[in-house]
Amino acid sequence: MTQELVRMQNINKFYGRIHALRDVSLTVNTHEVVGLLGDNGAGKSTLIKVLSGAVPMTSGEIFVKGKEVQMRSTTDAIENGIETIYQDSALVPQLSIARNLFLGREPVKGPALFNRLDHEMMNEVAGTLLKRVGITKNIPPTTPIGALSGGERQAVAIARAMHFDSNLIILDEPTNNLGVAETQGVLRFVREVRDTGHSCIFIAHNIHHVFQVVDRIVVMRGGQVVADNIDPKQSTIEEVERVITGEHLIEALGLEH
Amino acid sequence: MDNRSLVQRFIAKPEFGPLVLLILEIAIFWSINPDFLSPLNISNTLAFTVELGLIALAMTLLMTSGEFDLSVGSVFGLSAVVMWTVFNTGIAPLPVAFLIAIGLAMLIGFVNGWFVTRLAIPSFLVTLGMLLIARGSALYITDGFPQRTWNAEDQWLAQLLVGDFYVGGFRVYMSLLWFALFAFLAHYLLTQTKAGNWIQASGGNPNAARARGVNVRRTKVALFMLSSAMAAFAGIISSIRTSAANPNSGTGYELEIIAMVVIGGTVLTGGRGTIIGTVLGIFILRIMRNGIVMVGVPGLAYNIFIGAIILGMMALHSWLERRHNAGT
Asked: Which helix (H) or strand (E) holds A69?
């Protein structure tokens, strides 16, 4: 049974006089990986920023598990179980893997007055999580993030979202600037995310990557959702590309000679 | 990672450079003038060292969070003047005057923090303004004259802050114990607590920290208040020890303190800080000041050595940093 997890309804966003989102509606179900595609300027990033509380919407409604919620800040989004992982802004490079995992929600042991971090627990959880997201290299959890590769950083950010039971994990261009092996790693985490009961919105320029992991493709163009139920198993990459660029409309109207 | 030996890991630590420098420095001064390590000279050096050191501890935490405070030298001078003015005019007894001075300093820190976090003005400019306001206030209150402090001797508070006792041949000042206590607390706070994690995250990547629910603003404001309070505490200790609350005292301390912190390995741009390094940095600079006089170099040449140490240590830190990054 699929259940509705997040529903965005009639979202409008103006940047000054620019109408960036026009009556956009988007639904994500539980246990679902949705691929969000669109050309540059199609409104993908704006939509995600609205959902993650980074920018306020001009009008519209957001429901989480059927209840209307207000997204005033990124903290609101996290409290509603929506975690957004941006390429580079998610982690503190100087802090260790374990310290990053628990940043803002650090476990404390002993009397409250001493405010003492539970290092053993943090390191232990971090170690197990790293194995779970497929980092097989023996990286100690005390390694600073700055010493990790791009793919390993993505893995840490995804591991964090999984550990704190985010219902919906939004991945913004997670495969940008990654090597082939690292990309495969990230795609594997996305499948793992779904298998452990989370939902995911996957944004990427590379349609091949999207096709490998998502259950459903949503396409945006010019601030509108132009297709929201493309099944990657029943369509080809070329068809989706035509929807993204809008060529299929031209074909349908018979304007081609 | 695992195949690196213990020695190599020790060398890679940011505190390693300052430690070697400190040992070298002591060895050189001692070999030129054996009196350098006499109990008298050690006690005298320590007494003066810890006053600046107290401020450097708080500054380390503040700089780790990505900000710094140029007004500490002025607050150092102002709070002593305020405390003694309140006491000498008979407005309040000494302990109350002490609390008033510390409270005023915390208010100054709060204003610094408010301007930096709410109005997003760089801390360089905000605290430069505050430097002038605090120094101007100290001069205005006193008409430029030092305040009387000599009836401090029969006060328990004065004894608690700067009293002394002998351990063998060493004269130990209470301020040294205060310094040791605060150094331990600051190290514990930075490395072992949730608050310490927030301080490092606020300096390392404020956007990521904010996105995780870390209150970056409140963290920074609290650290500005701490840095001002410590400057006031140090200024009061100094005024009792030297029996003078001079409105001009503390001039130029801010830069020497920032130098101590960066020599110890704390990064000016935030994210990484070390209290152990700062303690080493404090001793490197103060021992240099004492040592070059002891070995007969004219005291006026002091700044040449300090400048050379800063440049040398920065070069070393940047070299270690690059080598460290290349190795992983």
From this structure: strand A67-69
Q: How far is Cα A214 from Cα A141, in angstroms, rounded to an integer? A: 31
Determine whether the interchain pair B200/A95 forms a contact, defined as Cβ–Cβ distance below 8 Å.
yes
Q: d(Cα A56, Cα A43) in Å, to the nearest integer?
A: 14
State ipTM. 0.78
| B20: CB partners within 8 A, 6+ apart | none
Q: Could you tell me if A112 lies within 8 Å of chain B, comparing CB atoms?
A: no
Of the residues B197, B215, B218, B324, the best mutation for testing chain A's interface (the one with the most A CB atoms within 10 Å of its CB) is B197
Instruction: State pLDDT tens for residues A49-84.
Output: 899 888 889 999 999 988 898 888 877 888 888 888
For residue A28, count CB atoms less than 10 angstroms from its CB and return exposed for 0-12, middle for 13-18, buried for 19 or more.
buried
- Domain contains A48: yes
CATH number of A66's domain:
3.40.50.300
> From the CA of A54, how many Å to the nearest CA of chain B?
9
List pLDDT tens digits, range B219-275.
999 999 999 999 999 999 988 888 888 888 889 899 989 999 998 988 888 888 999
| Domain total of chain A | 1
- Is the Cβ of A93 closer than 8 Å to some Cβ of chain B? yes
Model-level pTM greater than 0.90? no
Domains, chain B, ranges and CATH? Answer: 6-327 (1.10.3470)
Contact A104 B272 (CB under 8 A): no
Query: CA angle, corner B237, sides to B107 and B253, nearest 5?
Result: 70
